[in-house]
Amino acid sequence: MSEGTHVDDDFSDHYDDSLGAARRAEVEAHLASCARCRAEYDRFREAVAQVGLLGRAAAPRGFDHRVADAIRTRSAGRFFGRRAFGDRVPFELLAALGLAALVAIYVLMTW
Question: Does 1 reside within a domain?
């Protein structure tokens, strides 16, 4: 391996078999010749294997509502709170409607 080239940056890609052929060969050659990096890669593989054994747990019933309530409470209603009409309708739409109303009034007054 050339100076400054770190195989540990490529552990994940090597494990996933997503390295290019040339880089994969470099990493494998380095791992074969460097006991420290090989031990580190073995620890990486073990950690990934252990994470893969973890099961998914279902969230408790009503969890999403409790989270939303906590956010609403802590943010004083800035998130998930009631919103005014202007917050629900985009400003651009309100501006376009106001401009159209002014043009209509002008046309009616000049007729």
Answer: no
pLDDT digits (tens, 9 = 90+) for 59-106: 899 999 898 888 878 877 666 656 555 556 677 888 899 999 999 999
Residue 7 identity: V
Shared domain check, 106 and 67: yes
Q: Which domain holds residue 94?
A: 63-110
Distance in angstroms (rounded) separating the CA atoms of residues 108 and 102: 10
Let me know whether 80 and 47 are in one domain.
no
b or e along 9-21 (b: 16 or more beta carbons within 10 Å of the residue's beta carbon)?
ebbeebeeeebee
CA dist., res. 1 & res. 38, Å (int): 14
pLDDT at 76: 72
d(CA 48, CA 41): 11
- Within this chain, do residues 46 and 67 fall inside the same structural domain, yes or no? no
